[in-house]
Amino acid sequence: MALVNVVNMNVLDNPTCFTNPFQFEITFECLQELDDDLEWKVLYVGSAQDASRDQILDEILVGPVPVGVNKFVLQADAPDPSKLAPEDLLGVTVVLVTCSYKDREFVRVGYYVNNEYYNPDAPPPPPPPTDGSEPPPPPPLPNPVPLEHIQRQILADKPRVTKFPISWGDEAPETNSTATGGAAAAVAASASNTATMGSMGVAGVGSPAPSSLATVTPPGFPSHATAHDSSGVVFMQEESNMDHSHFGGGGAGGVQAMTE
CB-based contacts of 105: which residues, under 8 Å, 6+ apart? Predict the structure, then answer.
């Protein structure tokens, strides 16, 4: 039985500018006193083809963790654009939030991220022609694209969560069958055709898990995505009609889709 369960995860400041930090409000329940801290990590998939471009935006230790329901805001800096290929600045990728205990990852939450060009000062597009002719092509994007004109939107209502069974004692840690970097690259690959601790406080509030469980596919995204939780982490069946390699669902843990 897991001693720590994620009860809820909310994405704050979304959508926002590409250069703004990631913010996740995390509520989790601790069922038993722990003798070590929890390690939370935010990872940004920088390329679907090159796992070396993945960026760990932050790693923090949270503890000592009191028994009961706890809440904090995990804030991570935006990815370093100099480490991203120009063609990977725009488009769909993935951000992962993971939690480990004694170097043993037991939960991974993944969100699709869409980065698109947005210029509020751009002139409106011309109306479609009424004579049946082809509309004029859109104006070309500036090269390079100004970072302040990239809007980042996290598909917060369609997260995916993967759970890994671990030993919570002092036994030697087991190695998950999918490493974070490789799994993250796989997720971004199917999607392709961050962290300073902002604030932390213990709160006695939590969100009940939704009563209805359903496997969902984000609209406009590939159906072979990974599993994560959106507005609330739900304990769902492990079966799914999706390929969850991106979120590490191929391991011993079950990839679970979550409802709003």
Answer: 98, 99, 164, 166, 176, 180
What's residue 228's pLDDT? 33
Q: Which of 10, 26, 19, 25 is nearest to 57 (CA)?
A: 19
**Kind plus residue range of the DSSP H or E element containing 171:** none
Cβ neighbours of residue 100 closer than 8 Å, sequence gap 6 or more: 38, 39, 41, 106
- Which value, to the nearest 10 degrees, does the dihedral of the CA atoms of residues 222, 223, 229, 230 take? 60
CA torsion sign, 240 to 245 to 246 to 252?
positive
DSSP per position, 30-87: E-S--SS-EEEEEEE---SS-GGG-EEEEEEEE-SPPSEEEEEEEEEPPP-GGGS-GG
Structure tokens at 115: 């980065």
Alpha carbon distance 52, 245 (integer Å): 17
CA 193 to chain CA centroid, Å, is 19
| CA 68 – CA 29 distance, rounded (Å) | 5
Cα dist. 50→79, 153, 229, 251 in Å? 16, 22, 26, 21
Q: 75-111 burial, b if ≥16 CB within 10 A, otherwise e?
A: bbbbbebeebeeebbbebbbbbbbbbbbebbbbbbbb
**pLDDT of res. 141:** 82
Q: What is the mean pLDDT of each run of 10 residues along the chain (260 residues)?
A: 94 96 97 95 92 94 94 96 92 96 96 92 78 80 88 94 90 50 46 32 30 30 34 30 40 36
Nearest-5° Cα angle at 256, 250 to 260? 150
For CA atoms 130, 134, 138, 140, give the dihedral sign.
Answer: negative
| Cβ pair 153, 15 in contact under 8 A | yes
